[in-house]
């Protein structure tokens, strides 16, 4: 059995199934580029048949990414599979991932099909896919709650039809590590042609065991592909987290004895990019990528780490991308230092004009703030996607009055397609007043489904980063704004979300 473990990232597909995490095509491409830097083996870029937006995202990623295999999910039917193949047509290496549920519950209640019908449909789907592409993954949805005998028949049949990867998901996060590992091991023993395919695990985190279950699927079960997402993003409580599972395999190589291709130094940048794009904040005590993952507050620990780092650290912060700042960026820094830091953070701006715009914003911020941290830079390049695109709505200025006992009032000046607009309103608080002011002019009719504030670098001198999630006619978009003034950051986030709602070229993918 191979010692190589394939890392299959599904941030852009299962990750996007987190309510509120839908991403635009350009956001998905930016994340795909970071996944490529990370040297992820397979990037599941979306579900081509779900929407034209998702199709275009997969197609764009397939045309841009060279070093990772690009994959699209599809139901087990000809239409979905043909759509996936079409989206992947220009990929350097493409994979069709087709699935159908095999558990009694899903077959009877959801698909309303008999097991024999499911078996036939699975075979037919893989046969159809194999005529379009060589690399075919088959997933038995709700595999862990399936009858082992029936599941083994399905898997044997789809391998005979040419499936090259077999995935046995714990779709609802019901598994226990030891039991899941044994389940996979016994299945592999029972399926006569099991050695003709790579076995894969895809675990959900409903009971907080997705990483442990995935590792057991590998160690006990013999799987050689793990499906995971950055920050553990994903449907409901999420998926197995890439950063945790990869660092477990690397840190405990003595136990797992496996190699992964991942360039771990890009992990923190990937985590920040996904967090800022989706508005899903990473908790400070999150393993590997949380702000406190390598922080020591108590004297005995600090003393130990100063004497010998490994007294309290099992990984090196630098190995996952917590680079110690060698150059402090501030108002006296030049373009080269700024560009260098962007590069280190994995941010690729696609034109000199985009770099110049970002640099101008950096200087404006540096005038108000003595030290600029990495989080500040990521925030300012993310405000308009960092691509230097002309947005329809642009923030100009804001004034607000609030006094105890008085109803707060805000006046916002912004531009709409270049035309300056002044708007004002009262509100329950200054943020509410500024949103109402903008809405009184734009009249988007969108519903706000999330408002969150994150102080992005430590002290009260830091920038506040605000995420606003708006929903209109089934479309969900996230806007992000950053500024040392939290009310200004909020107005910027609101306008950024409106830009996405009004944008034609950035098509928002459908929710799963
Ligand atoms: C465990 C997972 O993460 S699975 C992936 C989840 N991701 C998504 O659902 C992607 C986003 N989804 C969508 O955009 C839509 O649901 C679509 C385009 C896929 C399908 O839309 P619709 O055709 O309108 O169907 P709808 O979503 O209402 O129902 C799903 C249908 O697919 C069937 N189906 C579900 N899974 C499968 C499958 N793997 N293979 C074949 N058919 C399936 C269901 O039985 C149902 O059929 P029915 O209409 O005959 O009852
Ligand atoms: C379609 C499969 C891989 C899936 O997402 C699941 O079962 O959770």
Structure description:
- The chain is of the alpha/beta class.
- The strands form three sheets. An eight-stranded parallel beta barrel has the order 1-2-3-4-5-6-7-8, surrounded by nine helices. A three-stranded antiparallel sheet has the order 9-10-11.
- Helix 5 runs parallel beside helix 6, helix 7 packs parallel to helix 8 and helix 11 (267-278) packs across helix 15 (374-382).
- Strand 5 (136-141), helix 6 and strand 6 form a beta-alpha-beta unit.
- The chain folds into four domains: 6-278, Aldolase class I (TIM Barrel, Alpha-Beta Barrel), CATH 3.20.20.70; 294-321, no CATH class; 325-382, no CATH class; 393-502, Double Stranded RNA Binding Domain (2-Layer Sandwich).
- The model is unreliable at 384-388 and 505-512 (pLDDT under 50).
- Helix content is 39%, strand content 19%.
- Bound molecules: acetyl coenzyme *A (ACO) and 3-methyl-2-oxobutanoic acid (KIV).
- Residues 14, 17, 47, 49-50, 75-77, 99-100, 110-111, 141, 171, 235, 510, 512 line the site of acetyl coenzyme *A.
- Acetyl coenzyme *A binds at residues 14, 17, 47, 49-50, 75-77, 99-100, 110-111, 141, 171, 235, 510, 512.
CATH class of the largest domain: Alpha Beta
**Count of structural domains:** 4
Question: What is the averaged pLDDT score?
Answer: 91
Helix content: 25-40%
Coarse morphology: globular
CATH topology assignment of the largest domain: TIM Barrel
The number of helical runs is 17
Poorly predicted spans: 384-388, 505-512
Q: What class, by secondary structure content? A: alpha/beta
Rg measurement, Å: 24 Å
CATH architecture of the largest domain: Alpha-Beta Barrel
Q: What portion of residues belong to β-strands?
A: 15-25%
CATH superfamily of the largest domain: Aldolase class I
**Record field, number of beta strands:** 14
Could you tell me how far the N terminus lies from the C terminus, measured between alpha carbons in angstroms? 35 Å
Region (Regulatory domain): 394-512
Binding site for Mn(2+): 14, 202, 204, 239
Keywords: Acyltransferase, Amino-acid biosynthesis, Branched-chain amino acid biosynthesis, Cytoplasm, Leucine biosynthesis, Manganese, Metal-binding, Transferase
Protein name: 2-isopropylmalate synthase
